[in-house]
Amino acid sequence: MKRGFGRHGKKIPEFRTEEEEVRFWDEHDSMEFIEELEPVEIELSPELEDKILSKRELKKPITLRLKPSQIEAVKKIAVKKGLPYQTLIGMWITEKINTENMNY
């Protein structure tokens, strides 16, 4: 990835660790650095593309009120796992749904 100044005059820093990079992108909007990023094209086999599209489910945004301490705790765990915190919350919800469904 090339380094330089984005359209907002901000520069993507050099990261010492993957954790540091995860934390940075969790706290910053990538659109602030869009001019620095280079497009990448990938090719998927038709089978893999079909599999991905068939499992893809549209997501619907919701408002969920959490205590600031809960959000900070989730963010810390997410950094350790190398995940965006919203993804981690979604994973936890899915796990709980699956557990509850097994019990009934």
UniProtKB/TrEMBL annotation:
A Pfam family that the UniProt record links to this protein: CopG_antitoxin
InterPro entries referenced in this protein's UniProt entry, alphabetically: CopG_antitoxin
Protein name: Antitoxin
Gene source species: Desulforamulus profundi
The organism's taxonomic lineage, starting at the top: Bacteria, Bacillati, Bacillota, Clostridia, Eubacteriales
